[in-house]
Amino acid sequence: MARFAAAIDQGTTSTRFMVFDIQGKVVALEQKEHRQIFPQPGWVEHDPLEIWQRTQEVIHSAFDRFRIPPDEVAAIGITNQRETTLVWDRKTGKPYYNAIVWQDTRTAELCARMAEEGGFDRFKERTGLPLSTYFSGPKLAWMLENVPGLRQAAAVGDALFGNIDTWLIWNLTGGPSGGVHVTDVTNASRTLMMNLATLDWDPEILGALGVPRSMLPEIRSSSEVYGYTTGGLPRIPIAGDLGDQQAALFGQACFDPGEAKNTYGTGCFMLMNTGHQPVPSKAGLLTTLGYKIGNSPAVFCLEGSIAIAGALVQWLRDNLGIIAKSSEIEPLARTVEDNGGIYFVPAFSGLFAPYWRSDARGVLAGLTRFVNRGHIARAVLEATAYQTREVLEAMEKDSGVRLSRLKVDGGMVGNELLMQFQADLLNVPVVRPKVVETTSLGAAYAAGLAMGLWTDFTSLRSNWQQDHEWLPQMPSSQREKYYSEWKKAVTRTFNWVD
Q1: Mean pLDDT in the chain?
Q2: How confident is the model at residue 338 (pLDDT cuts 50, 70, 90)?
Q3: Which one, 108, 235, 414, 424, has least CB within 10 Å?
Q4: DSSP conformation class of 97
Q5: What's the CA gap between 469 and 423, in Å, rounded?
């Protein structure tokens, strides 16, 4: 008898496999990192075969180490780093090129070229997205232009495109031996190629990008049976598929219009449920899919995307060596009372919401001889909170909804200093759930719903429990002084790339 639902959470830096019981509690977790490949400045790649290998390893390890009977797992859901783009041979399963990661900026020139006709918003009415290096479509167009032999392979039907969810589902369900080539509406909505009105690939945009439709996966709902695991894995239905941020929204039980969550991971992503109609953004946000459960109508979202959040802590650790472990940043930041007058704007991949400036690059502003390691650590943490406030203001402007509290999740929410500063800066309570790995939980929920492990949203909502709440404490004058100085620092990042 099925008692559990599982999730593969394939993220930017690691792959994890998690198993949840019917109350949404974690009963098994395995995680492995994969390499970050930086061929040249602005380029970020992953090895798709390494990701597939890590996926198999964490699944086997979790079943073995936690003694989970496979026949008690109702289904597996997939959640993934979105926009990360890859193309592989349908006959061999071999990638034609490394996966181009969502942070990669190599398509800036291509996007600028396409914007000459109609501007950077030329597809926004249909897709909810601006022309940006962020999305999969321009990355795929770059591959077709630059990877030897790929366009010819695509023309004869040998080349398959997918974001990471599609790659994993294809391999899990047989790969070259009958693998299912699908994606869900949430991942498709991040490609710049899906029409929000039809929930299908847009022929005119495909033509503009030079992408053959034969390469593209079938777009399905976020909760249905796509196929079954094969190839040495226990035979379990693959029945859920959500991009990572939409999965977190689902795991946070934000099922009603106006409910919002913010995920603090490699990047930082705030999503607000806007119901069954897409809300066009006038304030620099993205209009995107939230989820689609089986045959039910699709639910839309407004999203504010921040490229660099936890990745800035990793940069401090790996590139500068100021800390040895990510967990050391909070104690170091607590050695000082404030940021010492410095602001770190991490525009390593340009600025995402609400600016969409691919010409921006990171700055550390306000340096004096007074500044030490502690101030830099504090500025690194505060950068995420400042960017979140910018996104929240845009979201409130677009939606007309004033948030009364912010649900948070992701790896950084264990940082008490950051969460308190976030509440102070937003002037609203910040609430952390007991299960903070809501991305994996959301994917497991979607899969379990498809198999009847859960029957409706009411049962999922009852699983959500508050762990901690941070209340605003900062005087308003201090809050606004900090924020105005942050805004000044942001302007220093503009026009760096010609």
Answers
A1: 92
A2: very high
A3: 235
A4: S
A5: 9
| Token digits of residue 280 | 């066009």
The CA distances from residue 146 to 100, 139, 142, 155, 156, in Å, are 13, 10, 6, 15, 18
Cβ neighbours for 133, distance < 8 A, ≥ 6 positions apart = 104, 105, 106, 107, 108, 111, 139, 349, 350, 358
| pLDDT computed for residue 395 by the predictor | 87
pTM of the model: 0.85
Task: Quote the DSSP letter at residue 353.
Answer: T
Which structure tokens are listed for 291?
Answer: 């989820």
Residue pointed to by tokens 């705030």: 270
| CA atoms of 395 and 233, how far apart (whole Å) | 43
Rounded Cα distance between 393 and 260, Å, is 13
DSSP 3-state of 128: coil
CB-based burial of residue 328 (10 Å sphere; 0-12 exposed, 13-18 middle, 19+ buried)?
middle
Q: Cα separations (Å) of 370 from 242, 328, 342, 376? A: 47, 22, 10, 11
Strand runs labelled E in 323-396: 343-345, 363-365
CA distance 78 to 87: 19
Instruction: Name the pLDDT band for 459 (thresholds 50, 70, 90).
Output: confident
**Contact, 71 vs 9, CB < 8 A?**
no
Q: Which pair of tokens denotes residue 95?
A: 């990638």
